[in-house]
Amino acid sequence: MFRRVFSSLVVMVGLIGCDQVQDGVDAKAPATPRPAVAQNNAPPADASPVVPAQSVEKAIPTASEKPTADRDQGKSSAPSFELTGKGDQASQKFSLQAGLSLWQVEHDGRHNFQVSLLNQEGREVSMPLNEIGTWKGTLLVGIAKPGEYLLNVRADGKWAITIREPRPESGASKPFAKQGKGSDLAGFVTLPDGLNVFRANYTGEGIFRVKLVDRNGKLVEHIFAQLGPYEGSKAISLGKEGLYAIGVYASGPWSLKIE
Questions:
Q1: Mind listing the pLDDT tens digit for each residue in 192-232?
Q2: Distance between CA atoms of residues 120 and 55, nearest Å
């Protein structure tokens, strides 16, 4: 009798142990799923192959690979941009190429109006304008090095400055004649080397100044610098034939001729 009971207990313990092993020795670890039976899902022979999405996506340019428009941008003139404000202000930073830039400036105040150009180190590289009261005109400003710049503006009224960077391939030829009023670009002119005669007439008040710069914005010569009405001529000799720009700084009517 005792042996029969003992045998029954051994059998029950053995069954419990088998259940524990079957459920997993480590109760904390989940049971490993069985791999699914592979099925044959191949498309029929006449079905079109599926194109991976990656092969139809447009490539995104990296820092060393820019779109064509960006690569070609340096060959053409940069677009114009405008800076505006009221009173004393430091402008936002902007980029300029090396060479000639044209500044169209307006101010509607009554007191001192001063514009200074600072490079990215904060050093003043040019003060193209220092006037009093309302002012409107176009200035020729040469930029020696490309980079980031900003303007320091001293004013008591609203002001606006539009900057553009023309890069013409040719200009007018001699004989050249131009009439205008106030500060402006008289024009781009192709001049020969050697002797060139400039004639000017000014009927306004204040400063009358005419300067000649090369196509890179570098000053060649101040041809005229007078105060008040003026009529006269001046001969200058150029070292080489080339494209030049003529800038006039004035407040009244003027006329220029080149022979």
A1: 999 999 999 999 999 999 999 999 999 999 999 999 999 99
A2: 44
Compute the distance between CA of residue 120 and CA of residue 130 in angstroms, rounded to an integer.
22
Alpha carbon distance 191, 196 (integer Å): 8
Domain ranges of the chain: 77-167, 170-259
Please compute Rg for the chain using Cα positions. 40
If you classify domain 170-259 with CATH, what class do you get? mainly beta
Q: Output the pLDDT for position 20.
A: 38
Cα dihedral 84→90→95→98 (10° resolution): 100
Q: Please give the structure tokens belonging to residue 12.
A: 């029950």
- Topology of domain 77-167, CATH: Jelly Rolls (2.60.120)
pLDDT in tens, 3-25: 443 444 433 434 334 343 333 33
Low-confidence stretches of the chain (pLDDT < 50) are 1-78
Contact 160, 220 (CB under 8 A): no
pTM of the model: 0.68
Helix, coil or strand: residue 23: helix
**Token couple for 57:** 């996506």
- State how far the Cα of 113 lies from the Cα of 154, in Å rounded to an integer: 6
Residue 259's DSSP bridge partners are: none
Three-state helix/strand/coil letters over 53-80: HHHHCCCCCCCCCCCHHHHHHHHCCCCC
- In the sheet with 81-86, reading across from the earlier edge strand, the strands are 81-86, 158-164, 99-107, 135-143
